[in-house]
Amino acid sequence: MPRIVVDVMLKPEILDPQGKAIAGALPRLGFSSFEAVRQGKRFELTVEGEVTEQILTQAREAAATLLSNPVIEDVVNVEVVAD
Amino acid sequence: MPRIVVDVMLKPEILDPQGKAIAGALPRLGFSSFEAVRQGKRFELTVEGEVTEQILTQAREAAATLLSNPVIEDVVNVEVVAD
Q: GO molecular function, one example (chains A, B) (predicted)?
């Protein structure tokens, strides 16, 4: 069944303590190539049948209202993934 | 600066109560097109300069050891995103 993937990240100006903690842990574990880390969320919405333009519009609306908090987060990607 | 995006999802056999709660909320808000929802994590690792094969290998190792819990999660994607 096709899925719609929605990616949500904190807005760039919002502090991300979880990402900061990971950025601090990486060099301690020997991974020294990364300047910064930010953590966001990924949602997979399963659709039965075909992903129509109407369903995609619904997914974009759901992403903007339920899956993200528009005050502090950006929806950075909404895309269809077929299996 | 280029970023490496790492996507982590719970393994299919692991229950996802957060995704289930979202799947229940969607139709109540008028979004009736989705059969199921699963929530995962997305990480953005910022790299200074070019993303070499060595840095990408480091990102894959970090994804498998620090960014995911291999007992319950799968790393579903590691990719380079240029700005």
A: phosphoribosylformylglycinamidine synthase activity
The nearest alpha carbon in chain B to A18 belongs to B43
Cα–Cα distance for residue pair A7/B1, rounded to 1 Å: 20
* Residue range B31-51, pLDDT digits in tens: 999 999 999 999 999 999 999
Contact across the interface for B31 and A66, Cβ inside 8 Å: yes
Interface of B with A in 18-77 (CB under 8 A): 19, 22, 25-26, 29, 31, 33-48, 54-55, 58-59, 61-62, 65-67
CATH architecture of A3-81: 2-Layer Sandwich (3.30)
Partners of B46 on chain A (C-beta within 8 Å) are 34-38
Tell if the pTM clears 0.80, that is, is over it.
yes
**Please, what is the Cα angle at B70 between B76 and A40, to 5 degrees?**
50
Total Cβ atoms within 10 A of residue B74: 16
Render pLDDT for A31-58 as a digit per residue (tens, 0 to 9).
999 999 999 999 999 999 999 999 999 9
